[in-house]
Amino acid sequence: MAEQELPVMERNRCNCAALRKASRHMTLFYDAALEPSGLRSTQFAMLTEIHRRGDAAPSIGDLAEALVMDQSTIGQNLRPLQRDGLVTLERDETDRRSRLVKLTRAGRSRLADARPLWLAAQEKFENGFGKRAAAELRSLLVGIAGDPSLVPERAELHQQKA
User: Fold this and answer.
1) Is residue 160 pLDDT above 60, yes or no?
2) What is the CATH T-level fold of the domain 36-114, as seen in this structure?
């Protein structure tokens, strides 16, 4: 097969690459801000989601859906939180195949310690980027994350099985 000359793609034309670059940059920014708490941004997001649900402890599947992650990644991210005594995994009495994720007293305390650090990072970002622009960006990103037309068929089948 003859080698074809590929046209040069304009810089930052790929939506996926641009989102991934921004995501990595923001992850580094929030991880650095949260470092004194001993949490990473993903762990903070998980603890926040668990806490947000109050007494209705989420299953691993619920967390995966809420955080747009696969269940195995959720499990990998829960291990250090469980090891550090910040969460517990308990069998769901209504569905013995499912495990519920519960925040411990230590988890609530760590989350409370991390929250001011997160708020400071949030404020720093919004002051630099603009509060309105940050709100619009969040709205757009949440829309992308929840858009079912962007889920490949294979992933839809996988999610239905879970």
Assistant:
1) no
2) Arc Repressor Mutant, subunit A (1.10.10)
